[in-house]
Structure formats: C-alpha cells, structure tokens
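U., I forgot to send this yesterday:
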Amino acid sequence: MSFNKPIGGSGFGNAFDLSSLKKPATDQLPTVGIPVTQENLVSEFVTKSKEKVVVLLAWSPRSTQAKEILETLGKLEKADNGAWILGTVNVDAQPEVAQALQVKAVPIAIAIVAEQLLPLFESAPAPEQVRLVINKLLELASQKGVGSAPVGPAEMPMEPEEEAAYAAMEKGDYKAAKLSYEAWLKRKPNEQVAVVGLSQVNLMIRIEGLDPVLTLQNAKDDDLTSQLMCADIQIASGDYEGAFDRLLKVIKAKSGDERDQAKLHLISLFNLVDPTDARLIKARAALASALF
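Result:
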C-alpha cells in the first residue's frame, strides 16, 4: 500500500497530534463502522477495496473532533446504502494499525481504492464538505472500475432538531425554530449548521414587524437600538457591506456595554455570511483593528 495525492486537497483544518491529546473521556463512544485491527486490516479492507471503496477514519476517544467526524461518516455510509465501507481505527486500541497507516494525528480519513491509499482530509470538516469529498471519491473510484459513482447529489441526513426547526420555519414559527436550534447546540455545542440556523431565526425574530424603509429612514446615529435594527434590515436585504460598516462605526464611537453589545451583534451577523465572502473577510479585519 502507498499514499497518493489527497482527494480533499490540503485538508480542511489541522488535526491533533497524538502526543497532545488528553486522557480518554469516559462518555459513551460512537459505534459506527467496522473496527480495524491487525487481523482484519488486509482481509476486510485492503482486499475488499478492489471491489468497493473503503474509507478508514483514524480517531481517538480523547478527541472530541474525532468523535464528531466519526458520527458524520457513519450517517453518510448509512445514507449511501452500502456504496462504500467505513472502517474505524481507534489509535489508542490499535497503535500497530495506526503505525502501519502512518497516522501521526487524529482525526484523519484515508480511502483505499484498489489497494491504494488516498488521504482524504484531516480534522473535522463541515458535514457538507465531507459529503462532497465522499462523492468525489466515489466518482474517481468508479473511473478505475471500483464501485459506482453516486447516482445523485445525496445529502446529509438531517438531525431531529434540524428537522423540527425547518418545520417550524415553514409555518413562520421562528420562536419554535429558535428552541430547536438551541436544543441542538445544547447537545452538540460546536455544530456550525445549528449556529448559523440560530443566527438566522434570531434575525427573523428581530426584524419581524419592522418596516424596512421607515427603519432606515428614521435611523438615529446616537441610538444603539436604532443602529442594530438598521444593520439587521441591511443584512436581511443582502447589503452586507452596509450592515458591517454601520456596526463598525458604532463600535468605534461607543464604549463600555454599548460597545460590547454592538460587537456581539456584529459577530452574530458574521455567521449569516459565507466565510469566503470578501466583504466578510474585510469586516473581520476591520473589527480586529477596531478592538486592538
């Protein structure tokens, strides 16, 4: 076996070095995929990779990120109805397997296609990114005569709280949607989809009943509440730069609690914009400059 060029580019973040991880947590561990051992690595995974794509996740109970990405991969494997095989390498229990796979940090995902190792990604990418990587992997493997390409743009299965939030939003019940997203974040504090969803429903709650034209026309430069409402209206209408510039001016002009409130409001609006958007990148830099 040998490593080829990674499918997922240069990785979607940094994995944790094995030596830096803390003592294993005592909470219940994920039970997805097939555990990889010295005894079954070749027979259950390498050999079968001639017929079906194999994805191995090297993980550790000591890494919260590793457990999260393991859960994501488990859902994707189930959604794909056996199109590929998920193997799990617990580096604490199987150090020899980790060494054989040249694993030095977790989490890291590795594919095996026709007995060739292909690095997929490190750290814990967003579920949507993982979905795209798996789809690309299946397409490339099918070109080599292994397995078949995905039939359609399969999506990540939705979490129960996410389904409840969407159902509530379809009815215009933003308060119920808010409660669903908050429950999701209580269960999974680092779930970015829930963070964005909560920011969206909070925005809808704040602007509900506001007249956009009158709100902007009657804006008062020295009134924090007025400026926050105007920024909300601008974000909702797609004027990201206008909203960011407005709150940056407030942050520079205010002090104490009002300054902190404007800063937190601006950061919450950042969650509603594509992280790669040039306007957001510029505003983040401006905020850092204004604060330090």
